[in-house]
Design brief:
By secondary structure, the chain is of the alpha/beta class. Helices cover 29% and strands 26% of the residues. It has two domains: 129 residues, ATPase, nucleotide binding domain (Nucleotidyltransferase, domain 5, 2-Layer Sandwich), CATH 3.30.420; 95 residues, ATPase, nucleotide binding domain (Nucleotidyltransferase, domain 5, 2-Layer Sandwich), CATH 3.30.420.
Length: 241
């Protein structure tokens, strides 16, 4: 997986100075957070996100059509995509589990007509949530997004697909598990999975994000609730690195 260093940004220190002409200055970034139910959109200078419908039949072509219509009046000169799957060297490694096909070979820069940075969606929200130390981010949504930040270096992970009970972590704490087992059992499974991951990874900070985090009656021990807006912050920060 691709690692990203955010130490200077997290500590609010000046980022490394680039040589003149190293890249064109980016002033307005469009962030697209691709989820299982919606693609959430925000551009620099705006405060109200917009949405495009997502789902199991969403292809990149259909997403681009929806995005063009949704942001036709938003000026932007660069794009960050929060991608719901592994990303290697700025490219999707495989199609998402919960969406349609065709993502790996799709040319996003040509489609947007602008520079594009692609990052795992959990890693993007983790960047926006990071304070210091060793932080584990868990995104409770359609699936289970996971990322670990160690002293400012982001390590996207795919822990949701590890074996658990009769399936995987994601099968029990993702939307499928919530629909199948109900809130009470889902909450117990979330607490159990969080405890297992804390024991294995030994983080100093644990953030629970994603659309379903708000459905927890109580937070598991030694965790804090994230904010979905942090995904946009992470997407903006990516262009300041």
């Amino acid at each position: 997986m691709t690692t990203v260093t955010i130490l200077n940004i997290a500590k609010e220190e000046p980022a490394a100075v680039e040589k003149p002409g190293a890249r064109t200055a980016v002033t307005k970034v469009l962030v697209a957070d691709i989820g299982g139910n919606h693609v959430k959109l925000l551009v620099t200078g705006q405060s109200q996100p917009r949405k495009v419908a997502s789902g199991p039949y969403l292809t990149p072509e259909r997403m681009m059509s929806g995005i063009r219509e949704a942001v036709s009046d938003w000026d932007h000169d660069a794009v960050t995509l929060g991608y719901p799957g592994p990303v290697l060297d700025g490219r999707p490694l495989r199609d998402p589990h919960n969406l349609g096909a065709g993502w790996v070979q799709f040319d996003f820069e040509t489609a947007f007509g602008r520079p594009v940075k692609i990052i795992n969606d959990a890693a993007m929200q983790a960047i926006g949530s990071y304070r210091s130390g060793r932080m584990l981010f868990l995104g409770l949504g359609t699936g289970l997004g996971t990322a670990l930040i160690i002293e400012g270096v982001v390590h996207p992970m795919e822990l949701g697909h590890l074996p658990y009970k009769k399936g995987t972590f994601e099968d029990y704490v993702g939307q499928r598990g919530l629909n199948r087992n109900g809130k009470k059992e889902w909450r117990r499974d979330v607490e159990d999975v969080v405890a297992r991951l804390i024991a294995a990874l030994q983080p100093s900070d644990v953030v629970l994000g994603g659309g379903n985090a708000k459905k927890l009656k109580e937070l598991p021990p030694n965790t804090r609730l994230g904010n979905n807006a942090n995904a946009f912050d992470g997407g903006f920060r990516l262009w300041d690195m």
